[in-house]
Amino acid sequence: MRRQHVRCAQTKFRSIGSAAFALTLPLILAACGGGEGPSSSAGVAASAPAPTGITRDILVGRWGIASFHTDKDRKRTEAEARAGCKQPYTITQGPGDGVMMHVADDPKLYELRLKSGGGKTYVGFEAPAGDPQDREILSHSRSMLVMRFVDPDAQRRYGTFIYSRCG
Question: What is the mean pLDDT of residues 42-61?
Fold first, then answer.
């Protein structure tokens, strides 16, 4: 079933630009037969201590997004992410202490929270840090975020994401 999703997504990819693809991939995969939903609930339970160096306020905003699979493509991808501000991806505050974002293969928004473990920072559901549904935050600033999925299959399909804050 997973191959069917990827094949369908690849077909759709040919008809849209890579920046738009990165923004709409969860919706495309859901339309290709429905992605597997997350096993966790949409709500966020009690908050854990905030990870060092990043706050929810850094995540909240309008972002241009693009992704890359090899480091040699990173500079080009940063430019694509900045260009993605024509159709920004919006991260808002959640009703609890998290942020509203999509997860891999699901078109719905979920409240995800910041968490840390093993010296790394993650965004994900109420679960131990480094859960397969988490995204690891590789670097961050007020103007740029770099994240990747923990799950190897999702990482292989989606690559490493560059989020460029829109003016």
Answer: 63
